Amino acid sequence: MPVEEPGCRGIEVLSAYLPPIDHPRGLMMKLAYFFTRRQLGKVITPVRVHSARMPPAFGSCYFKMQKLDQVLRLPRETSLLIRQQVASTNMCMFCMDATRFSALREPAGNQARFDGLPQYRTSPLFTDAERAALDYATKLAAGKQVRRSTVDRLARYYSERETCDIVWLVASEHLNNMTNIGLAVGSDGLCQMRQASQFGRTRPVS
Question: How many folded domains does the chain comprise?
């Protein structure tokens, strides 16, 4: 099985365990395909492989999960970094690519921090608060448990509500990761498409 590299360079698209469905049944799924293609320039593989085989309520659930991120009290940049760190820990190539694609819409400084994420513990690009959140996310994603001291460290920088926001990000990202990993859904090259579109080489994806 090919190995994908994080980020937008050297990505190889994997073959999923189930064949993608290009012509879905049902009005709701056809609409989902239409709007996904309109927004991104393509129907993403998780939709074609997983969502197309499930009742519409499951697709609606994933959509609502994305909308819930908009009501978190954490800064959006922090939320994106946490999601990327969890996806990287779980080695979900699709989610790593998709989250980076979202970061490409943000200020350039956020993109630099995505590049520096593997060195977040020592890099001056990250604040102490972000390091505490990323440590918590890494330990929960990797070990499925955290020490009280890790939570106490979060409390120095985040409210109880913001701590729950961080838990939500880790838990919901884990669901996304396992869905894709379980079906061998790899990167769709979304951020490559966006970078190319900025130079007029392909259709814009936003």
Answer: 1
- CB 101: neighbour CB atoms within 10 A? 22
CA–CA separation, 118 and 134 (whole Å)? 10
CB 177 within 8 A of CB 86: yes
| pLDDT tens-digit series, residues 92-124 | 999 999 999 988 877 666 788 999 999 999 999
Q: For residue 7, which of 99, 133, 73, 75 has the smallest C-alpha distance? A: 99
- On whether residue 169 sits in a domain, the answer given is yes
Q: Contact 107/28 with Cβ under 8 angstroms?
A: no
> Can you tell me which residue has the tokens 């061998």?
184
Give the range of the structural domain holding residue 158, as residue numbers without chain letter.
Answer: 75-182
* DSSP H or E run through 103: helix 93-103
DSSP state of 16: P
CATH code for position 130: 1.20.1290.10
**pTM of the model as a whole:** 0.87
In a domain, 102, yes or no: yes
pLDDT (tens digit per residue) in 3-46: 333 445 444 456 899 999 999 999 999 999 999 999 888 999 99
